[in-house]
C-alpha cells in the first residue's frame, strides 16, 4: 500500500513539473533546431542605401543572434555569409556578438559566393567554416583612402579657408596632399588594424601569426585554396553546414528554421530598398543631380578615412 502511494506521489510531482515548465524547456536527446541566419551585403554601422544595396549591420546581427540565443529549442546556429566586407568597427562589433553566442551554442559559417575581408573576419571565430569550391574568400587586409579633392575644388571655383586647432586636424579634409609625416600616421593606423585582423584569424583558425601574415596579403582565395591553407574546414553548401552544426550540437534529427531579415514595410519589400535612402536619392534627382553627381556628393561629405576590411572597388555606403 505504501509503495503504491509513493508511486502516485512521484507521478503527481512529474505531472506538476511538466505543467509548470515553460514550453520547449524539456530537452529531448537528439532533437532540436538549427537556426539559419542569412547575412548578405557590405558590413557597416548604417543601413542599406538605394545606390549600394543591402548591408549587414551590428544591430541586425544582434537581433537575429539574440532570437536564436533565447530560443531553447535552437541547439546550433548557421550563419550564411555573402559579403565583401566593410568598416572595421562594424566587423569587430559583429564578431563580438558571434563570440558571445558561440559560448552557448555551436556556430557554423556557410560561405556563399563571397565571404572575403570583413566577410572572412566575422567568420574566423566560428566553430567551423564551410565554403563552396568557387567561394571567393580571404582578402585578409585593410584599406583606407583619403580623396585629394584640391584640383576638383579649383575647377569648380571653390576656395576653402581652413582654421584648425591641432597640427594634423585638416589632413582628412581632402583639400591638400598629405605630408610625409601624415602618410606615416595613416600607415601606422592601417598597420594597427591589420595586426588586429591577423590576431583574430590566428586565434580563430588555430594558426601561427607567421602563417597568417604570409596569407594576409589582401589576395582572394577560392574555397578549394582556402581549405588547403586552413582558412576553412569543409567544402560544401548550406546543407553541409547545417549537418555539421547539428553534429556539433548532438542533434540527430534537426529541424531547420530559416530566419528572415528584419521586417520591412510593404513598399520597402517591393522596392528592395530602405525608404529613407530612397527619399534621399529622389531629393537629389529633383535637384537635377545624376547618379554620378550623387556619388560625388557622398564622397565630398565623407572625406574622413574609414579603415575597412573590404575587397577594394566594392562600393560601400
Write the layout of secondary structure elements.
Elements lengths: L1 H19 L9 E11 L1 E2 L11 E2 L1 H13 L3 E10 L1 E3 H15 L4 E10 L1 H4 L6 E4 L4 E3 L11 H6 L24 H26 L3 H7 L4 E3 H7 L4 E2 L2 H12 L1 E8 L7 H6 L3 H12 L4 H11 L6 E3 L7
Parallel strand pairs: 1-4, 1-11, 2-3, 4-6, 6-7, 6-8, 7-10
Antiparallel strand pairs: 5-12, 8-9
Helix pairs in contact: 2-3, 6-7
Description:
The protein is of the alpha/beta class and 317 residues long. It has one domain: 2-enoyl-CoA Hydratase, Chain A, domain 1 (Alpha-Beta Complex), CATH 3.90.226. Helices cover 44% and strands 19% of the residues. It is built from twelve helices and twelve strands. It has helices at 2-20, 58-70, 88-102, 118-121, 150-155, 180-205, 209-215, 223-229, 238-249, 266-271, 275-286, 291-301; strands at residues 30-40, 42-43, 55-56, 74-83, 85-87, 107-116, 128-131, 136-138, 220-222, 234-235, 251-258, 308-310. Strands 1, 4, 6, 7, 8, 9, 10 and 11 form an eight-stranded mixed β-sheet that branches. Helix 4 links the parallel strand 6 and strand 7 (128-131). Helix 2 packs parallel to helix 3 and helix 6 packs across helix 7. It starts with a helix and ends in a 7-residue tail after the last strand.
Amino acid at each position: 500500500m505504501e509503495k503504491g502511494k509513493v508511486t502516485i506521489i512521484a507521478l503527481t510531482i512529474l505531472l506538476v513539473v511538466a505543467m509548470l515548465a515553460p514550453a520547449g524547456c524539456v530537452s529531448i536527446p537528439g532533437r532540436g533546431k538549427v537556426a539559419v541566419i542569412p547575412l548578405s551585403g557590405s558590413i557597416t554601422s548604417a543601413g542599406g542605401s538605394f545606390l549600394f544595396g543591402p548591408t549587414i549591420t551590428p544591430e541586425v546581427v544582434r537581433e537575429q543572434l539574440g532570437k536564436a540565443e533565447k530560443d531553447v529549442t535552437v541547439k546550433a546556429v548557421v550563419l550564411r555569409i555573402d559579403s565583401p566586407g566593410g568598416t572595421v568597427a562594424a566587423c569587430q562589433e559583429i564578431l563580438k556578438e558571434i563570440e558571445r553566442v558561440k559560448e552557448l551554442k555551436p556556430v557554423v559559417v556557410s560561405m556563399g559566393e563571397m565571404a572575403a575581408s570583413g566577410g572572412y573576419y566575422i567568420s574566423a571565430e566560428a566553430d567551423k567554416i564551410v565554403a563552396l569550391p568557387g567561394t571567393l574568400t580571404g582578402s585578409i587586409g585593410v584599406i583606407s583612402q583619403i580623396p585629394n579633392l584640391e584640383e576638383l575644388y579649383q575647377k569648380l571655383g571653390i576656395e576653402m579657408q581652413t582654421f584648425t586647432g591641432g597640427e594634423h586636424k585638416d589632413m582628412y579634409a581632402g583639400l591638400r596632399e598629405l605630408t610625409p609625416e601624415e602618410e606615416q600616421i595613416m600607415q601606422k593606423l592601417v598597420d594597427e588594424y591589420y595586426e588586429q585582423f591577423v590576431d583574430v584569424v590566428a586565434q580563430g583558425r588555430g594558426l601561427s601569426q607567421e602563417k597568417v601574415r604570409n596569407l594576409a596579403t589582401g589576395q582572394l582565395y577560392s574555397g578549394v585554396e582556402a581549405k588547403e591553407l586552413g582558412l576553412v574546414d569543409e567544402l560544401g553548401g548550406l546543407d553541409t553546414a547545417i549537418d555539421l552544426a547539428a553534429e556539433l550540437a548532438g542533434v540527430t534529427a534537426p529541424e531547420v528554421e530559416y530566419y528572415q531579415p528584419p521586417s520591412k514595410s510593404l513598399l520597402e519589400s517591393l522596392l528592395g530598398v530602405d525608404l529613407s535612402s530612397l527619399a534621399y536619392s529622389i531629393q537629389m534627382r529633383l535637384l537635377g543631380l545624376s547618379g554620378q553627381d550623387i556619388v560625388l556628393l557622398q564622397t565630398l561629405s565623407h572625406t574622413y578615412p574609414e579603415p575597412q576590411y573590404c575587397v577594394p572597388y566594392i562600393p560601400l555606403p
